[in-house]
Write a structure and sequence with these properties.
This is 2,6-dihydroxypyridine 3-monooxygenase substrate binding domain-containing protein. The chain is an alpha+beta fold. The protein has eleven helices and 19 strands. Strand 17 and strand 18 form a beta hairpin. Helix 9 runs antiparallel to helix 10.
Amino acid sequence: MAPKRSSNVITPDKPMKIVIIGGSNTGLMNGIILKRLGHNVHILEQNTKSERSDLAAGITTHPEFDEFMNVHDLVKESWFVPSPGIQWLNKDAAVTREAKRPLKMTSWEVTYHRLRANFDGFTSSFCPDPPARGEKDGSATFDLGKRVTAISELEDGVQISFEDLLDGNEQGTISADLIILADGANSTLRGTLFPGIERAYAGYVAFRGTVPEAEVSEAAKKAFDPKLTYFCFKNNYILLYIIPGSDGSLEPGQRRYNWVWYHPLAAGSPDFTEIMTDTSGTLHRNTLPAGGMNPKAWSKYAEIAKEQMCTPFADVVAKTTQPFITAISDLACPRAVAVNGRVLITGEALNLVRPHMALSTTASAKQALLLEKVFRGELSVQMWEKKVLHEGRISALKTNAFGTFFLYGALSAVGWVAKLVGAMLGGMLPFSSLPAVPQ
């Protein structure tokens, strides 16, 4: 019998069995909302350990993420370092421009463990007292070591095939009413639904690193504290802000200074190949994680920092013992719904935007909050898709214009700004003719 075709898969008034593929922050935010609405949520996470270290160090949040935490985070303790605004320094470390804009700074590690505590009561050093399960909560399962290999439609649902990495790669299956795809920018499952959608390198990399607050000089602290600080130089720019300590501490003296340095490197060039090759000789396509940087390859960039950056920034770069690097790239999936409405695509599996404006985590929060409206019967899944696709495009154009301006100047950013204005004026029009839903 052919699979049942339904355009109204989501049932707000009936508990659903929902599988979320990917247990990082995007998957967890969706999972928290749905289990508190009474649905039974099963997260399949490929990683084999619940305890996780920082994947991208610092995170700057925006109002939508703050809204998510205000409503759905039941842990009482604070999770961020406040910043009163933004400043720009010149080569002499003098402030040339300021903007008063309160910001909240945190880290991937703090956010992940906080969300885990809210989803399935996971206890960690970050959240030793997770909130109790609510009376109306559905079940919440966080399943480690599950590498999903395929999804297929059934008559009244979907089936997920996986390998159990904790049990000798044993094959298994699980059925569900709905799948939420939240397995990141390198999603192989998205690739099966949308062949040819791949990351496109933007022509520059981001060096990243952190330094314990106790190791930063008093002069550098005076220049930075407590603002988000920028310094631009010769088609490069670097920014810095304070984040919680490696143990989640928000106490002054125990926090970390987190920096991100954007630097142009041509794809396939000897310099790109050299810096993306780790100490074992492995060439990384997208991210070379902390601890793997080849000291000899890094030395030339450490020298650039010393010679061309203002002293406070050069100081923190020099004191970073384990820098890491990400090749900046773009990716946009043409649809957020697949398999007759049985699969929803979220987070960086849907849109990978450049990190200049720190919009990724907030975008996932916004998608989850909109999905909550769908499950409450206040918004159709078709309108959810149009909204997340449109906002993904706006975010990409906005952050591309921002990054291009600070790297290459105002004239270079004109094209991105024009596209941004067109997309904003066009509203939903760019998505009036969506491609067919993939099966």
